[in-house]
Amino acid sequence: MEEQIDFIKEAGKKNTGDVSPFSRTMISKTLDQLELADHALVLEIGFKSREYLPFLFKKATGIGYYGNHISETLVTAASSAPALKINGGTAQFSHAKEEGTLDFGNNFFDGCFTVNTIYFWKDPVSHLKEIYRVLRMGEKLSLSFIDKKNGADLPWTQADFNFYDVDEVKTFFRKAGFVNIEVAQMTEELTGQDGKGVIRPFINVVGKK
User: Fold this and answer.
1) C-alpha angle 12/66/187, rounded to 5°?
2) How many angstroms separate the Cα of 109 from the Cα of each of 38, 64, 73, 76, 202?
3) Would the N or C end of the chain have less CB density within 10 A of its end CB?
4) Crossing angle of helices 72-80/2-11, nearest 10°?
5) What positions does the domain Methyltransferase type occupy (predicted)?
6) What are the pLDDT digits (tens) for 93-115?
7) What is the pLDDT at residue 159?
8) Predicted pLDDT of residue 99
9) Residue 156: what pLDDT?
10) What is the pLDDT, as a whole number, of residue 193?
11) Where are the domains of the chain?
12) Residue 135 to residue 13: CA distance in whole angstroms
C-alpha cells in the first residue's frame, strides 16, 4: 500500500478509496494479451508494486521481468525487497526518464505492458516509439487505460490527466509503427468505500511490431 501511495503522490493525486487505479484484475487482463512464452523478457512501463509478479511468473518458466517507473522511491523500494523465487523468474527495476527514453538496446524484449500510464505522457507517440524500438520483431505491446468518457469524473483524475478516446490511442499506435492493432472493451470489479462492488470499464489496446 505504501508503494501505491508514493505513486499517487508522484502523480499529484490522492487515492480516495472510491475507485483505485491499482487493480490486479486490470493488470492481469492486460498481461494475458501478451501470451508470454518460457524465458520471455517482459517490460512494464509504470509498475505499481511487486504484488502481482507471482501471477506473472506463473505464466511461463524463467520469465525476466523489467519494471520501469518515474518514481525513484518506488524503484528503490522494489529493488531492495527480497528476490522472488517463483518458476525461475527474475525481476529488476529501473528509473524512467520524463521523456520516455528507455535504457535498453533495440529488439530486446519479448513483450511490454502498461496500465493507467498514458494519461501522464506529454507525447504519447514518442513513448510508444521507444517501446516499439526495444521490442523484438513480431512481439506485442499491451496497453490498458480508462477512456475519455469514463475518466473525467473519477475522483483521482481532477488535474494533470490527459484522457483519450479509443481512436486517438489507435492513431498513436499506428504513428509509432505498430500493426495488427486490436482493441478490447474490458471491465474490472473494485470495492468502493461502502464495501460494495463497483464495475469499471476500461480499454485494452494491443499492437504488434
Assistant:
1) 60
2) 13, 9, 25, 23, 25
3) N
4) 160
5) 45-139
6) 999 888 889 999 999 999 999 99
7) 67
8) 85
9) 64
10) 65
11) 2-208
12) 31
Parallel, antiparallel, or unpaired: how do β-strands 140-145 and 41-45 relate? unpaired
Rounded distance, CA 14 to CA 11, Å? 9
Can you give the pLDDT at residue 204? 98
The dihedral through the CA atoms of 208, 204, 21, 89 has a sign that is: negative
Q: Are 173 and 207 in contact (CB under 8 A)?
A: yes
Query: Measured in whole angstroms, how far is the alpha carbon of residue 187 from the centre of its chain?
Result: 16
Give me the pLDDT at residue 158, please: 58
DSSP states of 60-106 as a string? Answer: STT-EEEEEES-HHHHHHHHHSPPP-STT-EEEEEEPPTT---SS-T
- Contact, 34 vs 207, CB < 8 A? no
All cell numbers assigned to 33: 494479451
Those residues of the chain that have pLDDT short of 70 are 1-23, 154-159, 191-194
pLDDT at position 57, please? 95
- 72: which 3 cell numbers? 525513484
Strand pairing partners for 201?
A: 187
The amino acid present at 197, given as its one-letter code, is G
Q: Crossing angle for the helix pair 124-134 and 166-176, nearest 10 degrees? A: 50
**How many Å is the Cα radius of gyration of the chain?**
16
